[in-house]
Amino acid sequence: MLIARQPVFDTEKQAIHAYELLARNSGLSRFSPPTSDYHSWFDIDKAVLELADQLLKGELKLLVNVSEHTLAIEHQFHQWRTLILKLARKHHILVEVTELVTASTLQKRWDSLRSMGVELVMDDFGTKYSTLTRLHDFEWDIVKFECGQTHGYPPSMLEGIDACMKKGIPIIAERIETYNQAISSQILGFNLQQGYFWAKPEIVLHSQLHTQV
């Protein structure tokens, strides 16, 4: 398993705003958040958190993903939550709820997540369960949008951006891979951006944790 960090770039300040920790099986070509068809994503969620403390320097924020499996299974969730609380005592942690977390699981865990005192991030608006309904039903601190489109933005995405603007929720553009995507996203209000255009993921750990996807 490979764990990498990728910066979220502040285009106004021309500086790194935060880092996201990403994980993948060493046999795959891209880093990505947890998928729903892998039974041991809790092991990866936990490994990422255990590494996080070594990577946090200065005042930079750190985004960590949480999977459906970690949230859904009671003992796994409480182990993960304990690690988050320990990190949050010393660092600025943002928990990214992936688009594959189901509505029932999120509803079940929301109060406990909110009580941790960390920022909660809705990932990949418009994908799977990351819907406009989810945006309105929960009190998000940040919402991430995939802005790697080459032929304009779908109406549903523009509606989500507008809803965030009205609520005063900061937004992050993901999958920015070209100059044109960076400029188009900035015009829409995305001052925080993430993607290969700004920086590729930097491998920080090659673990022997056995994974199968």
TrEMBL record:
Q: Tell me which PROSITE patterns the record gives.
A: EAL (PS50883)
What is the native source organism of this protein? Answer: Acinetobacter johnsonii
Q: What is this protein called?
A: EAL domain-containing protein
Q: Name one GO molecular function term.
A: cyclic-guanylate-specific phosphodiesterase activity
Name the InterPro entries for this protein.
Cyclic-di-GMP_PDE-like (IPR050706), EAL_dom (IPR001633), EAL_sf (IPR035919)
**Domain annotation EAL: ranges:** 1-213
Q: Which CDD domains match?
A: EAL
